[in-house]
């Protein structure tokens, strides 16, 4: 039985209540941390665990924590990024809705480790019903003495605030999130200064994803070494994967990092295979931003070994033949999916969500959407494919925040691996625009 | 539903005003502007949309300039800055939902309501909006009405929901 760090008790009836959560070992990490550990000792355990940012960037969490500036007399803040908006990703939504106390407990332990006395959970506004669930859980924890003044007699005070967003993908970028939390438009900030030095209200701030924070209770209870023993290489621990698309069993799965991609897609324990009667065509492994791969490259590395669900294995081969684990938004396409249409759809998303600050992103995303639209609707020009590659190149790396890269990669990778399909749309517009028409040329199907 | 706007003064109900004060008190001294997004949600919950008069009222509550409210309300997609119908259907148009037949179900919904995206039915009951990913991709196609998510949509399910809400 694979180790479940986050979801072991997720289906227990009533687990959303304090009492049931407590009965299943909940809040023991708060007791252990506040009564027996110094804040620095917790930071050390999280470092040893090697847990990497689960929102998509994969930056080591312990290292991020150790960058936090600690000037005298200035408050420090922990902000939980629950603005989950990356297409294909719905794990944080699931975790917060099903087992809200896991995040609350992680927030207490993490806030204590960082020396924060007021911490925020910034939840995308569309999830207002989840915000109510979290607020109820916070009220329960407070009533039981796990939040508020002098928690468990330790002398440590903590207040948790749940903040709703207003509908904007860009607020998942940490500095845009902080702007939004200050009541402003979600325009990302220039870095440096990094949030660890000047973040919320110009004070030192750590921003971590929901899933990252939720792991900290287990790490406090079991130790960083135990966590690092799970997984593979530098991809330690477990990861929540949001599986969607043309599979038999879509949903959120907690896996030990290192499971072969092939097993994750085809084994009954996880996705259960492609829907009956269809073949596996392509994969977006880590949310809409990461490069799309054809089925053969998704399952196998250049050297013939199986590709694994880990940071290193998914990015093996660079962007030529690899991709990224990202947020774990795992979107599976069968042979009925049109790559051109999907690429246009994703481009429209990034165009819509660009904050408009940087010209390459503001103009480039709109340009890519327009060109992809005309290819998809039978008006493509012969030079359009090269034009798309050129525009994508000029956005990438030339913007304040990574939204520009996130918009460029899906387009560049779709053309890299499915160029014939784009060419077919341009050469055969009448055929390609028939309802339900899909390119049926040579391609790897599994 | 596109009635001429009356210059109706907006004031929170006593319950909402108490809630607004509780929200403003959450933030450190001098940082009350952080309450802007939550207060705009509260305003829209009461008024049905984010009206200019309502935004001016929120500006006064937070002691900030009205422009600071307008620039925020127009940046985020959840605030309806024009009047809307009784039920606003926010329909996910992003990739994973489309893979599950989201485009066909949307076409059916438009036909059923007799409106296009961005429009309101003549009886003022329904407004249809297309939105980007709602973080429910494994249960697509999906739409949202206020706080409620409607998932695994089919043409039949859409008809049931519209029938139910039309009662």
Automatic annotation (TrEMBL), chain A:
SMART domains: NADH_4Fe-4S. Keywords: 4Fe-4S, Flavoprotein, FMN, Iron, Iron-sulfur, Metal-binding, NAD, Oxidoreductase, Quinone, Translocase. InterPro entries: NADH-UbQ_OxRdtase_51kDa_CS, NADH-UbQ_OxRdtase_suF, Nuo51_FMN-bd, Nuo51_FMN-bd_sf, Nuop51_4Fe4S-bd, Nuop51_4Fe4S-bd_sf. Coiled coil: none annotated. The keyword Membrane does not apply. It holds the Pfam family Complex1_51K. Its cofactor is [4Fe-4S] cluster; FMN. It catalyses: a quinone + NADH + 5 H(+)(in) = a quinol + NAD(+) + 4 H(+)(out). GO terms for molecular function: 4 iron, 4 sulfur cluster binding; FMN binding; metal ion binding; NAD binding; NADH dehydrogenase (ubiquinone) activity; oxidoreductase activity; quinone binding. Its EC number is 7.1.1.-. Residues 340-385 form the NADH-ubiquinone oxidoreductase 51kDa subunit iron-sulphur binding domain. NDH-1 shuttles electrons from NADH, via FMN and iron-sulfur (Fe-S) centers, to quinones in the respiratory chain. PANTHER family: NADH-QUINONE OXIDOREDUCTASE SUBUNIT F (PTHR43578). Belongs to the complex I 51 kDa subunit family. This is NADH-quinone oxidoreductase subunit F. The lineage of its organism: Bacteria, Pseudomonadati, Bacteroidota, Cytophagia, Cytophagales.
UniProtKB/TrEMBL annotation, chain B:
Its cofactor is [2Fe-2S] cluster. Binds 1 [2Fe-2S] cluster. GO terms for molecular function: 2 iron, 2 sulfur cluster binding; metal ion binding; NADH dehydrogenase activity. [2Fe-2S] cluster binds at residues 92, 97, 133, 137. InterPro entries: NuoE-like, NuoE_dom, NuoE_N, Thioredoxin-like_sf. Pfam families: 2Fe-2S_thioredx. Keywords: 2Fe-2S, Iron, Iron-sulfur, Metal-binding, Oxidoreductase. It is an enzyme of class 1 (oxidoreductase). It comes from the Bacteria. Its EC number is 1.6.5.11. Belongs to the complex I 24 kDa subunit family. This is NADH-quinone oxidoreductase subunit NuoE. The lineage of its organism: Bacteria, Pseudomonadati, Bacteroidota, Cytophagia, Cytophagales.
């Amino acid at each position: 039985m694979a180790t479940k760090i986050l979801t072991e008790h997720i289906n227990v009836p009533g687990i959303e209540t304090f009492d049931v959560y407590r009965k299943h070992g909940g809040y023991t990490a708060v007791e252990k941390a506040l009564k027996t550990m110094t804040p620095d000792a917790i930071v050390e355990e999280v470092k040893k665990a090697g847990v990497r940012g689960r929102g998509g960037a994969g930056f080591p969490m312990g290292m991020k924590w150790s960058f936090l500036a600690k000037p005298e007399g200035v408050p420090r803040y922990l902000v939980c990024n629950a603005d989950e908006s990356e297409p294909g990703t719905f794990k944080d939504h699931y975790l917060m809705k099903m087992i809200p106390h896991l995040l609350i407990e992680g927030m207490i332990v993490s806030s204590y480790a960082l020396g924060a006395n007021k911490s925020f959970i910034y939840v995308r506004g569309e999830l207002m019903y989840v915000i109510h669930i979290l607020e109820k859980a916070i009220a329960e924890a407070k009533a039981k003495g796990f939040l508020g003044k002098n928690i468990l007699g330790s002398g440590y005070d903590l207040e948790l605030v749940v903040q709703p967003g207003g509908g904007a993908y860009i607020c998942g970028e940490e500095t845009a999130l902080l702007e939004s939390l200050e009541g402003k438009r979600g325009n990302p900030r220039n870095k440096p200064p990094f949030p660890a030095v000047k973040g919320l209200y110009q004070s030192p701030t750590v921003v971590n994803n929901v899933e990252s924070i939720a792991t900290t209770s287990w790490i406090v209870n079991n130790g960083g070494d135990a966590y690092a023993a799970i997984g593979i290489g530098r991809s330690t621990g477990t990861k929540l994967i949001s599986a969607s698309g043309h599979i038999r069993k879509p949903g959120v799965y907690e896996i030990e990092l290192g499971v072969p991609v092939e097993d994750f897609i085809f084994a009954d324990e996880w996705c259960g295979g492609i829907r009956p009667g269809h073949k596996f065509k392509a994969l977006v492994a880590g949310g809409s931003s990461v490069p799309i791969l054809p089925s053969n490259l998704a399952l196998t590395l250049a050297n013939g070994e199986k590709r694994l669900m880990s940071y290193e294995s998914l990015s093996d081969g660079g962007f030529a033949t690899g991709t990224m684990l990202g947020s774990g938004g795992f979107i599976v396409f069968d042979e009925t999916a049109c790559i051109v249409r999907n690429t246009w759809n994703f481009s429209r998303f990034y165009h819509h969500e660009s904050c408009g600050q940087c010209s390459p992103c503001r103009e480039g995303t709109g340009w890519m959407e327009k060109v992809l639209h005309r290819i998809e609707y039978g008006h493509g020009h012969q030079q359009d494919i090269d034009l798309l590659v050129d525009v994508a190149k000029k956005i990438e790396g030339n913007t304040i925040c990574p939204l520009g890269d996130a918009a460029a990669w899906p387009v560049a990778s779709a053309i890299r691996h499915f160029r014939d399909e784009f060419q077919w749309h341009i050469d055969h517009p009448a055929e390609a625009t028939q309802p339900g028409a899909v390119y049926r040329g040579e391609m790897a199907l599994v | 539903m596109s009635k001429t706007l009356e210059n109706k003064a907006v004031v929170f109900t006593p319950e909402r005003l108490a809630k607004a004060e509780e929200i403003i008190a959450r933030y450190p001294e001098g940082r009350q502007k952080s309450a802007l997004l939550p207060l705009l949600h509260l305003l829209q919950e009461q008024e049905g949309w984010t009206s200019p008069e309502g935004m001016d009222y929120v500006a006064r509550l937070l002691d900030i300039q009205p422009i600071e409210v307008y620039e925020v309300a127009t940046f985020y997609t959840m605030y309806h800055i024009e009047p809307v119908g009784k039920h606003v259907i926010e329909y996910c148009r992003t990739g994973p939902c489309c893979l599950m037949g989201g485009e066909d179900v949307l076409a059916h919904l438009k036909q059923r309501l007799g409106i296009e995206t961005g429009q309101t039915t003549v009886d003022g009951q329904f407004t249809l909006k297309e939105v980007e990913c709602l973080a429910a991709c494994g249960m697509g196609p999906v739409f949202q009405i206020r706080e409620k998510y409607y998932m695994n949509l089919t043409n039949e399910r859409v008809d049931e929901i519209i029938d139910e809400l039309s009662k």
